[in-house]
Structures are given as C-alpha cells and as structure tokens.
Amino acid sequence: MKPKKFHKNLNFIEVPKGVQNMTENFIKMDTNTPPTYEAALKRLEELVSRLERGDLSLEESIAAYEEGKKLASFCAQKLKEAQNRVQVLLEKEDGTLELSPFVPNK
C-alpha cells in the first residue's frame, strides 16, 4: 500500500473504508499545523477502544494498529520535548537559586 499523506510530519497507509472514516474524524486541521498532543492522544484512545471492542476486520485492525503505533510514538516524542523544557528552581547551599533541568524520579 502506498503511504497516505495525512499530515506533513506523519505518513499513514491507505486504509479500508471503515478505518478511513475513523481517520477522517481524527484531527480536522490545516496540513501546515502539526497535531497537538491532546488531539493525537484522543485519536489513539479511539483506536484502542475500537481494537478492544473487536468489531474491526483483520485488515482494519492492522491499519488501526499501525496508525496507533505512529500516534503513540508522536505522543511519546511530545512528552519528551515537554520534559526537556521543564526546569525547576533549586536552592543552593549559599541561598541562591539555580535553574536546573527537570529530572523525573525513577
């Protein structure tokens, strides 16, 4: 299948009509505007719900899985970018404040 240009940063495969309708409902946006994290996450949740219900054909399920995998990667990247932007103020021993990168608890 030839990739379908859904968004300039994301290529999706040509999908069966049932899944195509879901894709069209994804993010109605200008192709010059990247999808938001929230919109991508909502679409991912919709795909997971459809897959869990089990009402898709095998081909539709595979297409939904592939789209979901790309969306999950997109969301993970957006979270990583946000984490890199977060900084916290730390008080040093001399009482001055210092900006430091956010380091999550592991």
Description:
With 106 residues, the protein is of the alpha+beta class. It has one domain (3-101). The chain is built from 3 helices and 4 strands, in the order ββαααββ. It has helices at 17-24, 37-53, 58-85, and strands at residues 3-7, 10-13, 87-91, 97-101. A two-stranded antiparallel ribbon has the order 1-2. A two-stranded antiparallel sheet has the order 3-4. Helix 2 runs antiparallel to helix 3. The longest helix is centred in the last third of the chain and has 28 residues, at 58-85. The chain starts with a strand and ends in a 5-residue tail after the last strand.
Alpha-carbon Rg, integer: 19 Å
**What's the helical proportion of residues?**
40-55%
As for the number of domains, it is: 1
Helix-strand string: EEHHHEE
- Tell me the strand order in the biggest sheet: 1-2
Class by alpha and beta content: alpha+beta
Search tags:
106 residues, alpha+beta, two-stranded antiparallel sheet, two-stranded antiparallel ribbon, 4 strands, disordered N terminus
Briefly say what this structure is:
It contains 3 helices and 4 strands; from the N terminus they run ββαααββ.
Q: Helices and strands in order, then pairings?
A:
Elements: E1 3-7, E2 10-13, H1 17-24, H2 37-53, H3 58-85, E3 87-91, E4 97-101
Antiparallel strand pairs: 1-2, 3-4
Helix pairs in contact: 2-3
